[in-house]
Write a structure and sequence with these properties.
binds 3-isopropylmalic acid, Isopropylmalate Dehydrogenase, single chain, IsoPropMal-DH-like_dom, two-stranded antiparallel ribbon, binds nicotinamide-adenine-dinucleotide, 41% helix, binds manganese (II) ion, 2 domains
């Protein structure tokens, strides 16, 4: 029997609730594919701070680097909001992404037909939407130096730096073009080149990469317009490639096309490493209630099968189980709106139904 070893970092808030479901699903499909799944679990973020006095330890980072494949829940919460910048749970996540070198964050936005009535947007606008946001993840204003706070004439000020190099832009652009080749063959690069120096370099660098991909159509859009166009006519987009901060904001916005942020998975890739996490956060407002939507985490596990384990059939089966659950009318609280034929389901019920349908389809 083949063995696969991954690290699980459930994190804070609803992180452990949704990661638990994703791990059960992973375990089930791996067993069905004659693979033994070894999971090394570690605290991360706020829970790690509570145990070790820092949001991630060197040992945990090393374990992640050794295993190369990490499934993460979410980090953060009000309990840790007053900590200094480097002790915050979010600092651990940024450090992990940087150390793993996972510069390309793939965030698919796929509108399930069963959910076209669950969005706050009109059905005819969102139906058939299938977008991939490729967010640059280890550069930009999240990491640029200098970064500091000081005071000038009694007036406190703070500095963040948005920096991009040509090589940083071009490697993520290549991922966008490569994935576009396998989809709708269109890339829209989103920037703010009418104002930002780093965006002018971004656009020039993407244009250079585009020359290597004559079969992929490239367009450019300013980020403020892109935010509007995503809501006006999302179907115009295939692959969107953009910087770290713009990608963060646009993907939360785009999540509402699917009905809820609880639906959006992500894969962060770089070299041989893969970090898989839902796009949503630790949702402190619903943590501990057993009602979190685990589907983003489960769909992230499908991406882990696809990109790291190279088990495309397992990925497809997980995605089919999600589809069936929704087609059968089961809705987590964040998607439930009393529509006829639908049933409200908590995290555990969703988990049980996914496992049952995976077991049934294996027969
Ligand atoms: P959030 O994504 O945690 O929550 C936003 C809203 O969406 C909340 O109302 C929440 O209940 C709801 N929601 C999110 N995921 C859900 C799910 N799976 N099922 C049902 N409802 C869900 O964003 P926030 O409130 O801005 O941030 C809370 C904390 O999470 C902050 O500390 C933030 O830094 C952190 N955060 C972490 C990550 C991450 O670990 N990758 C991502 C985003 C935010
Ligand atoms: C995300 C989150 C993170 C980010 C935070 C928690 C650091 O919002 O994964 O989208 O901004 O990248
Ligand atoms: Mn975010």
């Amino acid at each position: 029997m083949k063995e696969v070893s991954i690290v699980a970092l459930p994190g804070d808030g609803i992180g452990p609730e949704v990661t638990d479901v994703a791990l059960q699903v992973l375990d089930t499909v791996c067993e069905q594919h004659d693979i033994k799944l070894n999971v090394t679990k570690r605290p991360f973020g706020g829970t790690c701070y509570d145990e070790f006095g820092e949001p991630v330890t060197d040992e945990i980072l090393e374990t992640c680097k050794e295993h190369k494949v990490v499934l993460l829940g979410a980090v953060g919460g009000p309990k840790w909001d007053d900590l200094s910048a480097n002790l915050r749970p979010e600092a651990a996540l940024l450090k992990l992404r940087k150390e793993l070198g996972v510069y390309a964050n793939l965030r698919p936005i796929f509108v399930h037909s069963a959910l076209s009535g669950s969005s706050t947007l009109k059905e005819e606008v969102i139906e058939g939407t299938d977008i991939l946001i490729v967010r640059e993840l280890t550069g930009g204003v999240y990491f640029g130096k200098p970064r500091f706070s000081a005071e000038e004439d009694g007036d406190p000020f703070s500095v963040d730096t948005m920096k991009y190099s040509r090589s940083e832009v071009q490697r993520v652009a290549r991922i966008a073009f490569e994935t576009a080749k396998l989809r709708g063959k269109r890339v829209c690069s989103v920037d703010k080149m009418n104002v930002l120096e780093s965006s002018r370099l971004w656009r020039k660098s993407v244009l250079e990469v585009a020359e290597e991909y004559p079969d992929v159509e490239l367009s450019h859009m300013l980020v403020d317009n892109a935010a509007m166009q995503l809501i006006r006519n999302p179907k115009q987009f295939d692959v969107i490639v953009t910087g770290n901060l713009f990608g963060d904001i646009l993907s939360d916005e785009a999540s509402m096309l699917t009905g809820s942020i609880g639906m959006l998975p992500s894969a962060s890739l770089g070299g041989e490493n893969g970090l898989y996490e839902p796009v949503h956060g630790s949702a402190p407002d619903i943590a501990g209630q057993g009602i979190a939507n685990p589907l983003a985490a489960v769909a992230s596990a499908a991406l882990l099968c696809r990109h790291s384990l190279k088990l495309e059939s397992a990925a497809k089966r997980i995605e089919a189980a999600i589809l069936k659950l929704l087609d059968d009318g089961y809705r987590p609280a964040d998607l439930y709106n009393d529509e006829p034929g639908t049933t409200l389901a908590n995290t555990e019920e969703i988990s049980n139904r996914l496992i049952t349908s995976l077991e049934e389809t294996a027969k």
